[in-house]
Amino acid sequence: MNDYNSSRRQFLGAGAALLTGTLMANGKLWGMPAIIDNFGKSGSLIKGVQIGVITYSFREMPDQSAEATLQYVRDCGISAIELMGGPAESYAGAPKNPVDFRAVFPLMRKRNEKQTLTPEEQQQLDEAETKIESLSC
Predict the structure, then answer these.
(1) 105 in Cβ contact with 132 (< 8 Å)
(2) CB 65 within 8 A of CB 72
(3) Which of 77, 46, 73 lies closest to 57 in space, CA to CA?
């Protein structure tokens, strides 16, 4: 059994070395640059196809300012974006939403599933619903 494992390891090692040597021929990476003409350049127009992202893709990043979101996009090398909510709207001067829906939605779900809310949770949900009703008027 050890001979079989050694042979397999040797084969995989030799294969990996051969592949690395092939891709690194003449000190240059061969492969992606041969397929994508603008590899390593800024912009995301690849062989006539525009690649882009939506700003929602960066919703989990630590800094949610418009400037930071733009930098995230630039760091990815993307030159086409679709603006969605949050950072773009606040940068443009949209009023802040007085309801923290990230906190309210779990409470609404808990209530809808007939789970018991603590007094603090019920108070938080009541306050949020009051704010929501005042916004719709």
Answers:
(1) no
(2) no
(3) 73
List Cα–Cα distances, 125 to 76, 112, 117, in angstroms: 39, 12, 9
Where are the domains positioned within the chain?
Answer: 1-30, 41-96, 101-136
Over the stretch 28-60, which tens digit does the pLDDT of each residue have?
Answer: 555 555 445 555 566 788 778 888 899 888 888
Q: Which is it for strands 53-54 and 49-50: parallel, antiparallel or unpaired? A: unpaired
How many angstroms from the chain centroid is the CA of residue 83?
A: 14
* Secondary structure of residue 49 in the 3-state scheme: strand
Question: Taking the complete model, does pTM exceed 0.85, yes or no?
Answer: no
Note the pLDDT tens digit of each residue in 63-97.
988 899 989 988 888 888 888 878 888 888 888 88
Q: What are the b/e assignments for 104-115, b being 16+ CB within 10 Å?
A: beebeeeeeeee
DSSP string, 85-135: SHHHHHHTTPPPPSS-HHHHHHHHHHHHTTPPPPHHHHHHHHHHHHHHHHH
